Amino acid sequence: MILSDMIKELGYTPRPVVSVKQAQEAVEKKMPNLILLDISMPDITGFEYCTMLKNDVKTRDIPVIFISALDSMEDKVRGFRLGAVDYIAKPFEKEEVSVRLSTHLKIYQMQQELELYNRRLHKMVNDQIHLAAEEQKNILRALANLVESKGDESGSHLPMVGSNSRLLALSLQLSPKFDKQITSSFVDEIELAAQLHDLGFITISDSVQFKKEELTMDEWEELKTHAEIGARHLEEIYKHSSKNDFMKMAIDIARFHHENWDGSGYPRGLSGEEIPLAARIVKIVDCYDVLNRDRCYRPAFTLEKSMEIMRRENGQQFDPDIMEIFEKVQKQLKCENSR
Which helix (H) or strand (E) holds 235? Predict the structure, then answer.
């Protein structure tokens, strides 16, 4: 009895082919659940075709059983090394063929079910992580708004710093200097991360934050602690939540947005590219927004005066490469002051 007839009698649907070309066409038309492969083939050996199957991502997981009139140990070992799951020698015994086919089809089915389960589980975990990350962001946004509500009646400073940081990051993405560092996720994440830059002000006394006169040395030192305090608050949240790049960026911005390009800033006196890129971006955007707002100790500057002040600090407070692009997009930025 030929093998295909035997397989039919066992209740399976064989698709017999006599060449590699026919085999490839059959596989492309409908993916098989198992392949019975003769070692002796007219165009290439079964070993060579098995190698082709295992090198193709679409067919590498399909179980392959070698069949042959020869029953040498060398052929069996070679077949197993190439990825075959079994070996049936001619002449074929119906009971043996039945057991081997049934066993490997069940194993393959279980593997497929396990893979499907793993995909679903992976998606479920990712969905939960995404949901947790969004909830985390909502809590952080509420915290930032709580801090700002003490001093910004309009409530527009944080959203403007966020949206303007995103716009500047998008523009920097087009520059050969920054295109490798600024990914799409960087652009998306900086919008909210930038709004957490002054989270540390939650611990600074109102008498210092909103003092109209010049600060004393001790008051200035207290004010400067907000950068480190804000970063530490975010680090505590980071420790007890899903670890992600957004939180790392928010921590960097909170801690380093008062560092200066020339090393004269605080809290750590970093200079140049030692300062994280996100913090360098937010520093420029935050300064621009603050200059154009009324403060308790001075009225808002005009847009022209604000840009004049910032140009003077180019290369001292601000990264010159970012400032160059900032000046090109400055008129597109949102601003509280239209003068």
Answer: helix 217-239
Q: How many residues are listed for the chain in this entry?
A: 339
Specify whether 96 is located in the same domain as 197: no
- What Cα–Cα distance (Å) separates residue 320 from each residue in 173, 289, 305? 16, 18, 19
Four-residue CA torsion sign, 81, 83, 86, 92: negative
Kindly tell me if the per-residue pLDDT of 338 is higher than 60. no
| Strand spans (E) along 164-256 | none
Last residue of a domain, one of 100, 120, 140: 120
**DSSP tag of 295:** B
How far apart are alpha carbons 191 and 141 in whole angstroms?
A: 11
pLDDT (tens digit per residue) in 165-208 = 999 999 999 999 999 999 999 999 999 999 999 999 888 888 88
Residue corresponding to tokens 């081997």: 100
Structure tokens at 39: 């070692």
List of residues 6+ apart from 274 with CB closer than 8 A? none
Domain of residue 63 covers 3-120
Give the global pTM.
Answer: 0.64
Rounded Cα distance, 325 and 226, in Å: 29
